[in-house]
């Protein structure tokens, strides 16, 4: 059955909650329309954002619904409040997932309260297990407790649904209508059962109340560990909280985004699964979190990387992405039974790009390890030996074509960005070796310098006066914006300023930046996409470092205006400012933080220089 596009909430209409195992997307209408359970890369139990009929949802809303809605986070937490402003009263849902230290209990808690007046609510919990492919059975334990079980013949999933009011079962779904007056509340808890928590909670109210305060305290305590005290504190820490939500407490890995299948273009084919750990994205995240003072998160990720390096059989076999537990198989498949967001198909799980060759990941990885080694704690010699094998491999393969940072599917090319990040890999490896007096092969310096010369001679287009996207191209790429950010070239070098001007002419639209101009022969895909928000923040940094501070600040603060009501960003922005792609996107939020830090530094340096000049007068 075809869906009416108007039935779908805009992607930007959602807030996100989580427990460092998984997340849930909560709409302004009080509906949880996406949730993988119990882990980020587990199958969904709710996916109405991808199919209203077959995806499943968990909705609480006033009836009749003529309401105005507001949604906000409690300050410095990932506890989400959704408010309904009706003529007859004000209602509120507090949604959160307790962060358990034992890693065992995985619960979603929803507390519904009538703040003022009286309201009639409906609650519908319609889970659809295994991406909507597997049915389930219902086992009533009491009036207020129901067990849900699903099995595909190989794996089973058991959930417990508990409430402070009696529940009804209809067609294997759970529903109930209830009325609340001022001060009344109802609690709903959805819990994953893993064999260690078979007994239910005797007093849901006490448990929910304690869990709420414990969760608030956990997040506030985490934020307080941050060292950033700059101009955009609230915005920066909201982004940091989002990045933390996408970090696995059990494994230390960091996912690119908690969703899959959300399109980069309505009606297009670029609908990918981002629920995995990209070496590139996670390394950028480590850099950003380290700059904010979150050394524990950087340590946990570096240890996760060290484990992968120990398991790599030979140099050069580092994968582009992994599952959160480090496993390597991410076979891509299409879920043909799901209609997709606003009928945008295909809906994919897995990601075929996992076996692509993308040389830049070695640079991003070595840069993150270099920063960790310098600012957090020294790496071990055994870890260094494993890394050295990878560096030797880069020396032998930096000149080979690959698919590049944007994972193109139109064939391999010699991309500028990949070559530059190979230079970063060798440069940072040399810095680590010198810091520890480790053996430093002369080959590393020789190859690093070859790459430097190659980029300046083979990727510089004298006619266009810019560095081009790949060897022989006449186009620019927003990934080139990282040239001064990784210190490959000075931010005021004439060649760079000329390249920045070309990027502005070709890729910038009112401060928003496209990755590149679509090229079907290069990408191997049809259709278009929106502006790429991470690139916009890179552009802000480049402006700031080149001395264009006022322009940089204007672009940055205009970009802040594109965040949704809860301060969240998807991967891209459409022509009307709508959010596109998977949501929320780690890439975007870490770019925001990095841009804010860079702007702060440039403004502070400018102020200090002005004060020094005044003192010397």
TrEMBL record:
Give every GH15-like domain span.
Answer: 233-596
Question: One of this protein's Pfam families, by short name?
Answer: Glyco_hydro_15
Q: Does the keyword Hydrolase apply?
A: yes
Keywords from the named record = Hydrolase
GO MF annotation terms: hydrolase activity
Q: Is Hydrolase tagged as a keyword?
A: yes
Report domain Trehalase-like N-terminal positions: 8-144
- Regions that span the bilayer: none
Write down the PANTHER family for this protein, in alphabetical order. GLUCAN 1,4-ALPHA-GLUCOSIDASE, TREHALASE
Q: What is this protein called?
A: Glycoside hydrolase family 15 protein
Organism per entry: Chryseosolibacter indicus
